[in-house]
Amino acid sequence: MKVVRNAVPARRGRAAALLWLLAAAGYLLAEAFAAAALPGYSYRTDYISTLGDPSVSPRAPLMNAAFAVQGVCFAAAALLVAAARKQLWFLAFAVGNGIGNVLIAVVHSGQGNPAHIVGAVLAIVGGNAAALAGSGAPLAAAYRTASITLGALGLVCLLVTATAPSQVGGWERGSVYPIFAWQILTAVMLLRAGPKQRS
């Protein structure tokens, strides 16, 4: 049988895929649940991290747990994939995302602590840069194109978010949601490719 160079072993691929899917689903559900409990909260005009601020959000513990789970799962899944493919830059960016999300979960936006901003930058830049670095995976060409598009879109939206536009919540989500889209896409590709990885 022909061996695909730098292919991810099927078992590692499945584990990584499940971690990415679990983290994305948990985060998006927690966000919606937390937003529903905060009167007047808007996805378009309010920052995501407001949902994790215990001084204003009644479901802040849930949102902060989602931040932490996303960070740990994102980095752990990347480790499973990068260990097989020896992609150090991809792993470094993914770990940056993990550290950033955990920082966001621990240091809340309402505390005025610069560590929260550092965490947000690490999470967003790290996640989108991981998508760009992960575009080199030995998968379909359409996957590579989608990875580059998602990573670039997220970084552009982050730059706009930094200017604090009136629709800052929407732009911030434009910088964060591509990360979830990428990890879901990658998870699906890994699950589909699993039985063929070693052939």
Automatic annotation (TrEMBL):
Signal peptide: none annotated. It holds the Pfam family DUF998. The keyword Nucleotide-binding does not apply. Keywords: Membrane, Transmembrane, Transmembrane helix. The chain crosses the membrane at residues 61-81, 88-108, 114-133, 145-164, 176-194. The keyword Transmembrane helix applies. This is DUF998 domain-containing protein. It comes from Mycobacterium adipatum.
